[in-house]
From TrEMBL:
Keyword Signal part of the UniProt annotation: yes
Inosine/uridine-preferring nucleoside hydrolase domain sequence ranges: 32-310
This protein's name: Inosine/uridine-preferring nucleoside hydrolase domain-containing protein
Signal peptide start and end residues: 1-20
Family of this protein: Belongs to the IUNH family.
Amino acid sequence: MARFTSLLAALATLATSVTSKKVFIENDGLAALQLLIPLYAGYDVVGLSMSFGSASSVDALGVAYDILSEYNLTSCIPLYLGAEQPLLQTNDTFQLHNTLFGAPVWEGAYASTYEDSYSWEDLEYDDATPGAIAMIEAVKKYKDTDPVTIYAAGMMTTVAQALSIYPQLAEEAAGLYVMGGYIDNQYAQATGSSIEVDINTDINLIQDPEAAQITLTAPWKKLVIGGNVTNYLVPSQPLYDRLIHKAGGLDKIDGSEYFAAIQDIVYSGNYSQNNEQQTLPFWDEVVSSFMVYPDIITDSIDVQCAVDTSFYSPFYGNLRIWGEEFAPTSGVRTGNATLINSIKDDDFYDLMVDVLFTNWTDYCATGSFASLEGY
C-alpha cells in the first residue's frame, strides 16, 4: 500500500506541475469520490452538469451542491443544470414498457413513490447556462490546448443534446467515459436477489435509450465503457474496518462533518440498519479511477457497440456489442468502444482511502491539497 500511495503522490505532483488535464462530469447525482479522484490525479474539473435520471433534477443538483460545499469547492468548480427529461421517453412510456417486458428494481425519479428531497431556492448554480451548452463551451475552449474528457455517469441525454447542437463535440473532446453498459447479465437478472437484479440493470441507458444510442455511436477519439467491472468493486467489512481504524474510531467519523463521504460508505454497511438495497457498488468511483489512472486497468476489449432503440423489444435500452468483423455494416449505426473488464482491485481501494483522507479546503485558493493532519 505504501508504495502505491507514494506513486499516487508523485503522479499528483507531476500532474499539477504541468498543464492539468480537463474533465467535464455529467451525472444524475454525484458521488464525492467521482469528483475528488480526478482532482487528486491533477485533473481540472471544468464543469459539473447534473440531470434527471436516478434522481430528479433538483435532487441531482442538490447532492452535487452539498458535495462542493462540504469540500469548499464551490468557487472553482462550476455547477450546471443538465437535461430535465429524456429525449423521447416519458414516465408513461417507461411504465408501459415495464408492463410489457418487466420492470427494473430501481426506477429512479420515475418511481411512483419518488419525492424530491431538495428545493430549488436552496441551491446555488449557474442557472444562465444549460449543462449541454456549458459542455460545448468547455470543449471548444480547450480543444487546441488541452482537450476535455467528458465523463457521463447518468443518462446520456445532456451529451446527446450537446452533440445535436454541436456535432463537432465528439471530435474535439479528448474522449468520453461512460458508467454503464453492462453485458451478459440476463442470468443474474433472472436468478439473483433484488440487489443483484438491480446492479445488473442498465438504468442509465434504459431511461433514455435514444440519447444513449446517439452518444455511444458518435465519432469520439476515445470511448471507454465501464461495463460489468463497475459492479465488482463493492463495500466490504475489511474496507469499513480500515476506514474506521484510520479515522481513529467511529466517534471520530461521527464527530466530523469533513468525513461525510466516509460516513456514507461506513453506514451503508454493517454499522447501520440500512437494508441490502443501499449497499451498492462503487459505480461512478471505479470509472473515475481508471479514467485518471489507466495503469490500474488489467483487461479490456475493443468492440463495436449500439443501443437497442426498438420500443417493442425486451432489450430496449440495452447495450449490444460485436467484434469488429461481425458488426453490422448497414441498418444499425455502431460506435467504436473499449470495454473495461477488470482493474487492480487493491489499488482502487488504496486510492479510495488516500482520497478520502485528503484535505481539500484550500484547493480553490491554492490549487493544491494535502493529507488530513493526523491521518
